[in-house]
Amino acid sequence: MRRAFATILGGLTLAGGVSAPAEAGDPAAGRQVAGMCRTCHGIDGHAVVPIAPHIGGEPAEYLEAQLMAFKTGRREHEMMSVVAAGLSAQQISDVAAWYAGHSAHASLPEGVSEGDAPQACVSCHGADGISLLLDAPNLAGETNIYIDTQLKAFKRGQRTHAIMSEVAAGLSDEEIRKIADWYAAITLEIDAPAE
Ligand code: HEC
Ligand code: HEC
Q: Which structural domains are found in the chain, ordered by start?
């Protein structure tokens, strides 16, 4: 009896351990993890290499979902797949909490107004590239190389998402370049969390 009970308990514990979501992210622990990210994304999430996106001030939900996608192979990238494979689910929650704790501010370049923004994108990504949704990223100040690469990845099916795959499928390379230039011309500032 005892033995069977223990086996059942053991089975339950294992199942729980595998499927349980990570504890809520701890930004202080995440700051330590971010030491592994800073050469590309900066410690504050303002990217320092043109092929890497700014991630400071993004919603934690979005950051966590993307890191899990790299870890499970649903999204692939030669650098990020390796980085994410080495992180536990808890480290992913922690580092997402660290970067999400920052705040992102955008300013449009001189001489343009919100009305000039790509209208097909503003309802989710904002005219100034600050996202209005928890599951969508900011585009403000991303390099045009990065935006262009992601839209083409959605278009070719190397990255998939219910909404974005459809949005990107409808864009010509020329439209992609114009939209990428709009968001790339916006100045992004990222503030560290208040101590
Ligand atoms: C060697 C450079 C490098 C390092 C180190 C690195 N990244 Fe990245 N990261 C990239 C690149 C490049 C991309 C863009 C991938 C693509 O094109 O799909 C990216 C993409 C991401 C994304 C997706 C963001 C978005 O807007 O879709 C997240 C989240 C991310 N990285 C988090 C991290 C975290 C957290 C760490 C540290 C644990 C880290 N990265 C370390 C280069 C790096
Ligand atoms: C209905 C909402 C919605 C609309 C409209 C929309 N997007 Fe998105 N976009 C999203 C979501 C959600 C994601 C996150 C996809 C994922 O999880 O992989 C995303 C991701 C992206 C990314 C990847 C950015 C990164 O950091 O990796 C780019 C680039 C992008 N969108 C550009 C656009 C452009 C350009 C338009 C207009 C032509 C547009 N989107 C319209 C919701 C939207």
A: 25-104 (1.10.760.10), 114-187 (1.10.760.10)
